[in-house]
Amino acid sequence: MSKQTLQEVHIWEYRGRRLEPVEWGLWKDLDRPKHYFLCYRPAGRKGPVVRQWAWAGGPNLTLANLKEHVRKVRSEIEAKKLGRAVSHSAREKLAEYVAELRRLNRSEKHVLDVERDLTRFLDYSQIERLDRISTDAIRVFLHHVSNPTEPDDAAGQQADEEPGRRKPKPRPASPRTQNKILSVISTWLQYGVRQEWLSANAAVSIQKATEDQKHKVFPLPEELEKIVFASAPGDAALYVFLALTGLRWGSAASLDAACLSDEGIRVLTTKRRQEWFLRYDDGCPLWGHDLTKLGGRIFAQPLPRYDEVQAKFTAACNAAGKRFTLHSLRHAFASWLTMMGETTPDIAAWLHHASPVTTERRYSHLRPHGRDRIDENRKRVLTARGRMMERVMER
Prior knowledge:
15 helices; DNA polymerase, domain 1; 49% helix; two-stranded antiparallel ribbon; alpha+beta; 9% strand; disordered N terminus; hpI Integrase, Chain A
């Protein structure tokens, strides 16, 4: 870029893109419609600083939002130059953070959970300014969550509106829930540090609560056989497919006949919103070309709703004297592979986990000791796999 200031440049080329200035800090991408570029210079730095690309074509982020954002940034920079303290509204910054999560294509459930936890924290702490959030305020809120003395505001308000209804008894949050809330608050404050709203993250020094390690419940190969034999033909085929692929229900529900091939299965929807190809040649002993033939029967027509499938699976488990959920079939896939002596990185890749640490923490207790035990488990699992596939394919 030349030595001219940003205001004097009519067209700015950045990484092969042509940008045209709209106003201070805001540039329009001439190569992509409805795309804008946020670029401004914070106090104490030389030259423009690239912030982010923004798409102003949806209901959550418009051109007016972007203009308002850069005007606020400009006023904050000018205030810092004059030595004045910049005060940020906690509610406004929470709304900006939620809009940023939606822009990053986070799931709507995740966004609503984050907004609920942060709003609950601000309501309880009665904090209006972002810089007033302290370590003590976060600790007091986490203590309230773990030892509540009164129900949540929403539940109490609903009870007040309905005459004769008793207020629900407050329920203490588990250590896992406390750590989740702490993580949400810390991630928000860290985002504020990156955006220069805050000088430090007040939640960094808070230690996490000690969680009770609970092992995942999964059906053994023999137990799943009983469930398969107690189920209807079409339902049993779906149970076997989920147990042998390790797919979540949402991923399996996105499949159709076009996703199945001789090389593997093209999964359209995953938890991390990335298309993924389940390849039979990746070495997983539970995968095989017979899954394509089985999937052709299952996905010849759309799957029923989740609650309907779960109700049938629960009935089949009750008939076999067991209690599992559909997600237990995914745990069965990972647990069987661990029992067969497969390595943790391989299992994490086959499960499409973000990190092998998650796999190790959940299933390492099932790892057998000794080659004889591994061979015995492998024979046990593969024998059950053959019998279940023969059962569902002959129907």
